[in-house]
Amino acid sequence: MSSMATGDEPVTLIDIHTHVLAEFDDGPVSLDEAVDMVAQAQRDGIGKLFATPHSAHLIGKSYGEPQIRAAVSELQRELDARMIGVEVLPGIEVHIAPDLEQEIKAGRAFTLAGSRYLLLELPFSMYPLYTEQVIADLRIRGIVSILAHPERLEYFQRDPNLLRKLLKYGALIQLTADSVLGNFGPRIQAFSQIVLEHGWAHFLASDAHENRYRVPVLSQAQDAAAAMMGEEAARALVVDHPLAVIANSEIVAEEPQRYVTRRRWFW
Predict the structure, then answer these.
(1) Does some domain include residue 2?
(2) By the number of CB atoms within 10 A of the CB, which of 33, 136, 176, 256 ranks highest?
(3) Phi, psi (deg, nearest 5) at residue 117
(4) Would residue 3 count as lying in a domain?
(5) Are 222 and 178 in contact (CB under 8 A)?
(6) Strand runs (DSSP E) across the chain, as ranges?
(7) How confident is the model over 95-149, as pLDDT tens digits?
(8) Residue 25 CA to chain centroid, in angstroms?
(9) What share of the chain is helix, strand, coil (3-state, %, to 5)?
């Protein structure tokens, strides 16, 4: 399996995008379900994962960094008590907004485990015209945007080079494991393949929400990615780049290749 390194020592996978905190958003409904999710992650070879609930204003709740850190500590204590050897790290999936810098200052949005990396979600319905400005302004402040599951957004599927444009502004890309495996349908899978083959992807995460269908597993999708881009590049998505986030070290992204459509359209 591609999660094995030379010397027969298993490589610990790291999942940077999960909804494992109970009763925060549309994730698990109880602490027991949350623990079961993390146990599934451990069986898949995941040794660390980020708890990244949706930003509170998007779901009509009121919480920020202190509440999330407290919930992460509670979950970690329960995992330790049950001898589940996975480390949970604090984060949030931040919905883009023109005043995002104010959200960060107020503690309603924050980076992954205090690093320079921010998990940023764009809306599914319409591309915000202020997206480039927000990403550029954050970059000036030293904050690197990681775009959550852009392969599932129709406006990027229609125009892949719109996504490439955000890479040019300094954003990084997180693909979802289920997207790569085709569990969200063939169109999203095909676009995921474009992102992987063009070298646009920097992370592969589960975006897990519960313990039955959208679960925290990465190894199968890592193997699928390796078939498209090679073992070393696929490992970077689930090991090397997530480790850089935890260490708050720089991820050097390659110049993104321009996408050229293979289809000819006749009008």
Answers:
(1) no
(2) 176
(3) -100, 130
(4) no
(5) no
(6) 13-18, 46-51, 87-90, 93-95, 117-121, 144-148, 172-176, 203-205
(7) 999 999 998 988 889 999 999 999 999 999 899 999 999 999 999 999 999 999 9
(8) 16
(9) 45, 15, 40
